[in-house]
Predict the structure.
Amino acid sequence: MIYLDNHSATQPCSAAIKQMQSYLEEHWAASYSPHKMGQQLVSNLANQPIYDLVSADESDSFVFTSSGAESICQVLWSVFLNVSRKDGRCHFITSSSEDAPTMQMLKRLEELGCYVKIAPLDKDGKIDIAALKELIGSRTALISVSVANGLTGVIQPIEEIAALAKEKNVLLHLDATYAVGKTYFSFSEIGADYLTFSGEQIHSVKGSGALFAKKGAPLSPFIMKGAAIDAPSFMALGAAAMQASLYLDAMSLETARLRDLLESEVQKRSPLVKPLFKDTLRLPNTTTLVFPGAHQEALTFLLNRKGVYASTGGFYAPHLSRVLLASGINSKDAESAISFSLSRMTTEEEIVKAASLISDAFHLLQTVSEDLFCKQ
């Protein structure tokens, strides 16, 4: 197995599993209990590693959630309850490359009387800032976008988006699920009102996510204070966040080298293959490769048989071809592209082996296509 789908989920790191295990076997009491076991649990729940990972300030509110999806929904719901219902600003803006949780929650808000506007992408896969500016009006409440796309790896111009939101007096939510642990950024400096991410993409366990809100930003958590916290998952997220901070340099250098090695090795064996967005600012662990003449579903199926696991999107993430079409990529290339995402656990041996298997699968599809064409 060579796992190159790390933006869908990552393997939980040993530190996260170890922390979680102790809170399942020993520290299992309810956090709201007045006795020693409950109070010890509360005193042990430290969120500083999570703050450190995104460079959040002490004054920023933090909510532990069950997932990145829940974090996103809490932000959108909070703005609806505290802004849209109170002063009539019921316009929400997002981009055409957002994941299902954002789009589904916005659809629900539309059913409650809100309006959603979609900012287009440019040829580099980035949000068109000029078009975004035109979408903002006097009734705009929130701009909600991802820091980076999980399939293409393209990093959005969040500094420009934050400056625009501030100029127009509009709240800004950034979902950093794919960027956290892969690239440096500071919530305290970027100028956003909300930041969300999933623990599943930073080697924590499923069932862990984070939501940060700036002081003064409206926030109405789904679960009120006083409820028992999921201590095992919380501690796993903290441990994973600490590890992600320690490995940031390795992600920026070594993982980026392996990503480039994958591109070059595949192209060496299959010169027709081309990486997309190579001249655009990308995450260090992600590449999108186009395999001309090979349909992405057929190639993904073959790779799965060979033990190489990649992605073309799905229910949770937007389909890769749709994101590429929104970026102006022609339909043939869009339907022949596959996304590969590495982790800090990916090795050079795996990359070299994967490049060989990917090329073999591509050549097999080329041969089959040529045979079918000749028979016709």
Remarks:
- DSSP finds 14 helices and twelve strands in the chain.
- The radius of gyration is 22 Å.
